[in-house]
Structure formats: C-alpha cells, structure tokens
Amino acid sequence: MTLRLAGIDGCRGGWVVARWDGAGRLDLIRVARVEALFDAPDAPAIACVDMPIGLPETSEVGGRAAERAVRPLLDKRQSSVFSVPARAAVMAGLGPGDERERFAAACAAALAHSSPPRKVSIQCFNLFPKIAELDELLLRRAELRDRLVECHPEVSFRIMNGAPLDVAKKVKSRPYPPGLDVRIGLLARAGVPIDLLNGKTAAALGAGLDDLVDACACAVTAKRVFEGNALRFPDPPERDGFGLPVAITA
C-alpha cells in the first residue's frame, strides 16, 4: 500500500515526517521544506501538521477560536496550546536585522495588533519561519488547502485516549520517558508501527524522540481526515483575511 498519509512536526532546521499507509508500514524522514512532500511522486493525499495555519489580523485573548476551542479538552495539558499572534507580528519577525532586532519588531507589531496589547514570547517567535513557510505555501498553492491540515498532537492524543492525558511528554523542556511511553502506547493501539520510535532513529534524523512521536500522532489524525472521521475545532472552520481555513483538526 502506498504511503499516502503524513504527519508533520517541526524540528530544528526542518521537519520530521511520519509517512504511513494507515496499517503496517511507517516511514520516518526529515525534509527541509514541507512543499517537497507534495512535489514528490508519492505525495501524501492528506498531511496533518503541528503548526498554525491561518493568521488573525488582530490577536485576541486566548488566541484564535481554534485554540480557545481545544484547550478545555486537555485539562492539565492546556499550556501546550499557544495563542497565535497577528499576521503583522509574524511578518515583522521575519524582516531584516539580527534576531534581537527582529524580535523587537515582532513585539512592536504584536502590541499594535492585539487586544488587549501584548508582546510575543521568544518561544512563539522562534516558530515564525515555519508558520510563514506554511502560510506562503498555501497562499501560493490553493490546491493544497484541503490536503495540508493543521492539527495539534496533544489534541490528537486526547482523542485517541478518550480522556485528557495526565502525564506530560516533556518536563523542564526535556523529554519525559513516562509521558512518551504513554503516547507511544496510544499510537500502537491506533495501529501505528512503533518499532522506529526510539532514540536511535531520532538521532539519525537530527530530531528528538518527542518530535517523532508527535509526527506519528499527526499521521493518525491524517488517517481520520482521509476516512472522514476527523473532528474540527471550530466546525466549520473560520477563515483568515486571505481565505485560509482556521481550525485545529483531530
């Protein structure tokens, strides 16, 4: 069976991709840019990515409706869902200058395009290049908007588990083995082959084991989308100022 489902998670310097046939075949790869997946002969029919798609013109308290909708599902894991800043803040953070200057520009733009005014965190700022990469891709290639879908691994695991998870996958910014083991167990129950989910594979891909686990969770959601069983938050999705869908799918 062709590997037509993909889960994508950002990692340092690129993206980890879990390509899955929905049954017994799983392939874990690394790509520099997401577009390369869709230009390949074996391009995925559906790919779910752990990165925001659709940017607000003004950032509100709690973020987009998508973030506000999924947080209550996660109980103790709500902090894993960050609020997406305004488009102007993201674009300002990509401008000329060194990192300090770009961060200052992003914070200034965020203050001017949020209600109430607030800056962006450095963690969110570090994601701006990847957010912008997906934004540019989907604005340029509208035919991919139904095939490249935003998801969130913790929401995906919540759906797989049937209840909020009570253990984190990271503690003090470091992978937490008990939390990873719980999530790998959920992937196995969902039919994902887990033999590649280990430190050796992660090191070979230049990523963390948590990145691999999250990419696989996104692949499970891709299967749900492909089969027509996925949930969207909100449903129907909102649209940003450029017509991109704004929803977290699980």
Describe this structure in words.
By secondary structure, this protein is of the alpha/beta class. The protein has a domain at 5-53 and 148-227. It is built from ten helices and eleven strands. The protein has helices spanning 35-39, 65-74, 87-92, 99-112, 122-125, 128-140, 153-161, 177-189, 199-205, 209-227, and strands at residues 5-11, 14-20, 26-31, 46-49, 59-60, 114-115, 148-150, 170-171, 174-175, 232-239, 245-249. Strands 3-2-1-4-7 form a five-stranded mixed β-sheet. Strands 5-6 form a two-stranded parallel sheet. Helix 7 packs across helix 10 (209-227) and helix 8 (177-189) runs parallel beside helix 10 (209-227). 46% of the residues are buried.
The helix/strand class is: alpha/beta
- Gap from first CA to last CA: 24 Å
Overall number of strands: 11
Mean pLDDT: 96
Radius of gyration: 17 Å
Shape by Cα distribution: globular
Features:
two-stranded parallel sheet, single chain, 250 residues, five-stranded mixed β-sheet, alpha/beta
TL;DR?
With 250 residues, the chain is α/β, with parallel strands linked by helices. It is built from 10 helices and 11 strands.
